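USER: Fancy drafting a protein?

ASSISTANT:
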Amino acid sequence: MESRQEQAEKRGRAERLKQARKQAGKGSYRKLATNYGWNENTYKSHESGANGFTVTDARRYAKVFKVSFEWLYFGTGEMHDTDTAPPKVDDIPLISFVSAGQLTDQTEVTDLDHYPTVAAIDLPQGKWIALRVEGDSMNKISPPDSVIFVNLSDRRLVPNACYVVADERGAATYKRYRPNDDPPFQPASYHDVPPPAMNGTVRVIGRVRRTVLDV
């Protein structure tokens, strides 16, 4: 479920996309679809705000309409600003903790394309997922409703680093690794939160490398 912040961002992007199309004078939706190979209904859903569009879509639209990508996607600067040297922006699949628990067998992780995405700037090399934090067990690092970025390719345990792990039932949790504690995956909370009760072998899904909270 989208947060209010995400809904507001989607509406803002849709409105800027409409402004960009109108000022470009490129013709009707059908003409755009014909000239640029777009799906007419998909584009309409992006402009109406019914569906959000990705970083890749935004770069394509910005190029055609001759507007600033940073303005179109992030709402920064002015419509016709010259974009700075573009950062590396990736569309990371945003999944649930329930779905994360199914990723314990890394060899089976092949296709995450059907999930909604969240943009991330300059992530290092890796295979990434994003998760929205629920609860306050890690609020010293990641407050509730923040988004964490998890590298599925990085499962090497480092003391005091943070990981998403799952037990044999596939129940996933986000905790800090404390090898001298029992259990070794512990909360990092301002509240008195007990460590997770995990059944059987604990598998590392990936290391948490970034946490983001919109304000």
